[in-house]
Fold this protein.
Amino acid sequence: MTVAALSSNPTPAILPGSGGMRGALSDLFWRRPKLLLLLMLAPPVLWLGIVYIGSLFALLLQSFFSIDEFSGLINREFTLKTYGDLLQAANLDIILRTVTMAALVTLASAIIAFPIAYYAARYARGRWKALFYLGVMLPLWSSYLVKIYAWKLILAKEGILTWLLAKLNLLWLLDAWLALPIVGGNSLSVSFTGTFIVFVYVWLPFMILPVQAALERVPGNLVEASSDLGASPGQTFRNVLFPLALPGIVAGSIFTFSLTLGDYIIPQIIGTSRLFIGQAVYSQQGTAGNIPLAAAFTVVPIVIMGFYLWGAKRMGAFDAL
Amino acid sequence: MTSAVSFKQVSRHFGSVRAVDAVDLDIVAGEFFAMLGPSGSGKTTCLRLIAGFEQPTAGSISIFGERAEGVPPYRRNVNTVFQDYALFPHLNVLDNVAYGLMVKGVGKAERLKAAEEALSLVRLPGYGARRPGQLSGGQRQRVALARALVNQPKVLLLDEPLGALDLKLRENMQEELKSLQKVLGITFVFVTHDQGEALSMADRVAVFNDGKIMQVGTPEDIYQRPNTRFVADFVGSSNVLPPDFVQRYAGQHRWGSLRPESIRISSAASGNGVAARLVGTNYLGATTRLALDADGLRLHAVLPAGMALPAEGEAVMLTFNRDSLHLMDEPA
């Protein structure tokens, strides 16, 4: 293009509107951005407000009803009797078991996820980063049930893990572990250890991704600055990396913790016959037909998560956001 | 004279890129040393080699006589002021400054007192409770300086610390850094691509190009007596004169450099000199920069403001002292 072509501009200073419905709408939205925002937000707010939260509250309402033990009919009068039932020793046992499992799964996920997320955020570039995302996400694309049954085979007495340990002459280690109370059992696939392993496996991506996102936002020169000021790698981890990754770890733990609290399929397929909250809800609303008690059980994870977030906020987990 | 930092044939290669290539360098204890060069010339890599963030591919580095290869940054008593400050966003200003003392295990009361003193030193007393995000660029710069100085380093490294500041602030900080260095007596190593900054602040300057040091000397040496075309051109945009031209006026077949301010301009009719034509003017406030064409050779001259300027396209006569024409070492 010549200078002359660039310097002689034949178009007017203000262009005419493009005309028609679309042109008029574009101009209207540009002049009134709030209108566009309202139109964009209305469907999700309606969905979230009525369909999602609304039905949750309808469920919670059920927990304040009670069941007539003789007729099995629901008595629609406001009462705290169902919550009284929830506090029976057998039910408290279920809650304690579930919360302990969720806490252990969360802790293990955080410990395993951190180095993976750190590598992905700090070192992986280009093709390796794509491979990382693929590796983390791939298990999420396949069916949850298939994966759990696959794990049942891996952990079974005749399974690949036993075979591998036998080859390595480490079977005594597995037997010693299985002989332990609570965590042990006939085989890994019918022990709490097995439940734990599969929970960690299934929820790990939900911890890796937020931790990686948090570490990605930590500028590399903060690590250098810390080292420059005399901090050993361990001190840099404790004083710089960990506090800055904490919002990501908390976000990840919300997933792993609450997903473990609510899941009823994994402990049913892999583990002992002792119930977790999810299974209790399932059996109360199904076989037992006790919707109020099932609803009361679902309140437990919500309350626990509420306290968890409140505690995390007080500890300053969101300060670095 | 104690040597603060000494490079012997130091190279740092990244694959096929020779970021630093067989550099010899001696920085004297207590001096304000500037590393000057265009981006990608290896000056920052040299700084990172001193800090310990990079390890040399070849050669040896010693800091106050002690070998530094393989020594991690946290075991070097050297501190860095980073280009973008690298303040910890989750700590307040006081904890940022006290960080170095904290990781060394200094007690809380003592380290906070030292940090408060360091903040006074950089004229930010009472700013300790703020977060880095609440400070302006100039204030963050001072916090970064205080955070480094509180550790009483043997060498303070500054990586283009003034690059992000506006002109007025930059001039203030230049003066302050210089007087701070005099008061504290710490060796300062300062990386910059701004030749004015290097000349005005440093005791000695090393000019970098392409991973090599082209010249080391006092600002006057570098400015008045550049040894290569690159240095003459980079430091203060000198007129580089080709050997044939120099042959005519100085009788030697060598590359020459002539500072714009040593060229005098008179009307074309008068006397002998270099005949030239004015092709453009550039108003700079205190001075006016003239672009001249001397028979195909592009020259620049600088006139103080208020002098009568020839018209554009007018023929003029250029004269200069023989002494101001510097002959360079670079082979013709």
